[in-house]
Fold:
Amino acid sequence: MTSLNFALHADAIIPVAGPDNIVTGKSLVVRDGLIDSFMATDDARQLLDIEHIELSGHTLMPGLVNAHGHAAMTLLRGYADDMPLDRWLNEKIWPLETKWVAPDFVRDGTEIAAAEMILSGITTTSDMYFFPDVAAQALQSAGIRTQVVFPVMNVPTAWATDAREYLDKGLALRDHFRNDDLVDVGLGPHSTYTVDEALLSTTATLANELDAAVQIHLHETAAEVLAHVEATGERPIDLLARIGLLGPRTQCVHMTDIGNQDIDTLVQHGAHVIHCPRSNMKLASGACPVTKLKAAGVNVALGTDGAASNNKLNGLAEMQAASLLAKLESGDPTALSAVDSIKAATIDGARAMGLDAVTGSLEVGKSADIIALDTTGLAMTPGHKVDSDIVYASSGTEVTWSWIAGRNVLKNRQLQTLDNQALRDKARSWRAKLSQ
Ligand SMILES: [Zn+2]
Structure:
């Protein structure tokens, strides 16, 4: 294992901070797991008391932030495709989850997700799933920085039978990780169609008292919004605003069906949007108006969503999809440039989770959450602009090294905290079980 004191000598650095999008001629020095300095490479090579890692042909950038996911759902990848969201959930996903979701399912599925995320440059993830205690443990031992939002629902599941039990177990989990450097625990009310107003109100009270993060699926499809309006006369986001569940610690996932009044509401309350372009496209849920949101000053982060609706947990692929979809949705080729997409996948994701003082950019004093990408492949040549190549030309497999809080989790494309072969064996045995 690499020590927590090292110097990285790469061709270029994309710091996502400061005046330059791309920095050359500098090495990045890490001490005690923190970014210590950017030093002229010739000088950095003279440092005697640290390990030197030569990364010729590589670009360094902050580790990517996956602001919305359901890690354990890797075990449902490819189980049900090409269906609309409501039928996909009701006919396929929820019945299978009812039958199979248990601690072993969550542990194995989450470990597979962790491996896949590390291999594609994700160093911080958010997770919302049953048995969040098991997921938190798996992500922590994989070494990934994690925001776990524990599920809050009215319906009984294998993890909890009623609202009280969801909250009690979730709050105990929050206590357990209170002083953890890698794991943060927030509240994850699933949506306004699975959680009633009374429970959403209780969630708001708790989140405000604890100053905890809240993440909720919101305005995922036009049908969801319409059904809510028809039933209550109110748009889902207005319900959240009215009961105090919309604020600077609220992360609204999806937000495809939104109008100008909803954007005003987001701005007024300082809430964040988590955009999941690949999941939204695959389920034909709609397209989040990223350009309009950003123009209004709303912070927009990126998420993969679960592998059952994406079907990959790949940070590079998500950036690429976000930029392409933003252009199509707005009819504007300047929408979500490569630079903007990289920000959305790094510092804006960290900001949405309240982690921007710790991660999301390469700045002195921040945690060494760093990835190195091999940019020498044919598809990335001739290399006019490396940030453009990373967003528009990468295949998703260019990440060769990764450090989280200075801990080396990927070395020369080899996982350091997880066993790739063992995970593939586990996945195969789950396929056999789930198809029974
Ligand atoms: Zn989701």
Notes: The pocket of zinc ion is lined by residues 68, 70, 217, 253, 305-306 (CB under 6 Å). The first helix runs from residue 41 to 44.
